[in-house]
Amino acid sequence: MYSGAQISLYPMADNFVQIILGSLSALDPYRPRFRIETDDLSTLIVGAPQDLFPAMRDLHVAASRNSVHCVLHATISRGCPGEQPSSAICTPIAGGRGHGSTAPIPARVEEALANVASAPELGQVVAAQFSLYPLGGGGSGHHHMDEIYGCIDFLKRSGCFGRAKNFCTTLRGDAGLVFATLAEAFLRFGSPDGHLAIDLTVSANSPSKVDA
Amino acid sequence: MYSGAQISLYPMADNFVQIILGSLSALDPYRPRFRIETDDLSTLIVGAPQDLFPAMRDLHVAASRNSVHCVLHATISRGCPGEQPSSAICTPIAGGRGHGSTAPIPARVEEALANVASAPELGQVVAAQFSLYPLGGGGSGHHHMDEIYGCIDFLKRSGCFGRAKNFCTTLRGDAGLVFATLAEAFLRFGSPDGHLAIDLTVSANSPSKVDA
């Protein structure tokens, strides 16, 4: 199971280079378990699925210090058949939460809710917008819209649901809860061994007014 | 066939609000044919599939004036079964290029190459990174990885292919050619009536060095 993300930080400030470079130490605790590559468009992190969201959270919170309006975008994937079929660095920790479940959707919703209940509070409010893409036919009865609707049911009860928009769903709340909720969406929906991708945008300190 | 995009602009500058507001007139020629809604995370444009990429191109080029490092991100979708089943505003213009084809993949690659050959040159170099997601089983023999590989074959011959990365592909070149290439990827690959999504990032004026 190959899993990872292409992540980018967009600090809306003249000193964006310094802000980005100054935030990178937030990834240090994760470096031993990740493969990391950077170019001018994004930074690739390859690692176990349950490590991806805490790493993105800590990076984005670090880059959003001092009230900078900063957006993180990530293209997150697991199980892509076009990547190498498996990678030791992506193997979930034994006994850990793993990367999916064969349980029925309602049971997975309850598991996800139990996990987000213990999310840490980090003191940084964020707004997130994401799309979940379960790819491939999946012979095991996982229909892609059923998985999406199951995930939306979880999101509505997560404590940080924002609203449904065309093509995506928004979340709003403390970064701890929002990233924990995103992790559960990634880990528990879609076929457990199937190809799943997320298109994620997280914004902090936007000056725009929010109606919702 | 419901089609549209959630688009966001990220000018990496202190005066990002003015830059964004100053670029919006680039959408004026498209407004009569689009439904447009904005919140603090993105702007939704709903309209015919062949209009989406020229509109995003003109908006991004306008926001990237004066050498500002500016990124556009878009979540683009057609045929999502969770949206209203069809919308008059999304109907391709009669006789136009439409939004898909039942021709075999090699024929669609040739059509796409013929179309990008007439792309306008705009004088703004951009780098793009995107992922193409053909969703749903699609009973008509459209296997999602076959469509992705067919699209990659087209991209490699488009004149702006950058490189394959994990989870995405990069393009580099004049904004005219890059957005025309992206449009062809969206219009010609994946089942013509199926659910197709793109996760797109386009960057202008990055100070980072590019090895590729």
TrEMBL record, chains A, B:
Positions of transmembrane segments: none
All copies of domain Thiamin/hydroxymethyl pyrimidine-binding YkoF putative, residue ranges: 4-83, 126-209
GO molecular function terms listed in the Swiss-Prot or TrEMBL record: thiamine binding
Pfam families in alphabetical order: Ykof (PF07615)
Protein name: Thiamin/hydroxymethyl pyrimidine-binding YkoF putative domain-containing protein
Organism (species): Sarocladium strictum (Black bundle disease fungus)
